[in-house]
Design a protein that fits this description.
- With 182 residues, the protein is an all-alpha fold.
- It has one domain.
- It is built from four helices and no strands.
- The protein is elongated.
Length: 182
């Protein structure tokens, strides 16, 4: 009878450890999966802008109209975005392969959330700067076309990035970085 209790306790303990391990793996998987999905969304945004801007601009490289300046800014902005997102894809992929534990994942999640909040502040600055450029643009002035075009682009790019960051932050916060047994 005593050995039966020992066997039952051992089976329960092994099952508990197995469930705990599966739960912690699930947390790691969700964290990295969310980062990859978000980076894919930003990559797509950059690609669309890099393809569309030359198509919709009459003269991307020697802009004269506010539409040309708008697409010029979108194109240049997304060259930088594409570089950042490419480096981020590589870093997330490498980081996912490194040894980990729950404390490390929890710490990475907190850092990511803090970084996203800072980015959201910068995104608002981009939108406000674009609005200010548009408001300072005066017809019949030398800088009217560039201010209108760049201002509109800053508002669109900043607005998209704010929305992107808000969605990413919301999805990260939904990941519970603690297993159910804690």
């Amino acid at each position: 009878m005593k050995s039966l209790k020992t066997i039952i306790c051992t089976v329960i303990l092994i099952n508990s450890i197995q469930i705990y391990s599966q739960d912690t793996l699930s947390i790691k998987f969700k964290f990295y999966k969310q980062q990859q999905k978000s980076l894919l969304l930003l990559s797509s945004w950059s690609a669309v802008n890099l393809i569309a801007s030359p198509i919709f601009s009459n003269n991307l490289y020697s802009a004269k109209t506010s539409t040309d300046y708008f697409h010029q800014m979108n194109f240049n902005w997304n060259l930088i975005n594409a570089g950042i997102v490419t480096a981020s894809h590589i870093l997330v992929h490498k980081d996912n392969k490194k040894p980990w534990n729950l404390d490390l994942i929890s710490e990475k999640k907190k850092k990511a959330e803090k970084s996203i909040l800072i980015n959201m502040g910068l995104d608002l600055i981009y939108v406000i700067s674009g609005f200010a450029l548009n408001q300072t643009a005066k017809p019949n002035k030398d800088n009217f076309e560039i201010n209108k075009g760049y201002g509109s682009s800053l508002m669109i790019q900043g607005g998209y990035l704010f929305l992107y960051d808000a969605i990413f932050l919301h999805r990260l916060k939904k990941i519970d970085a603690k297993p159910k047994f804690d």
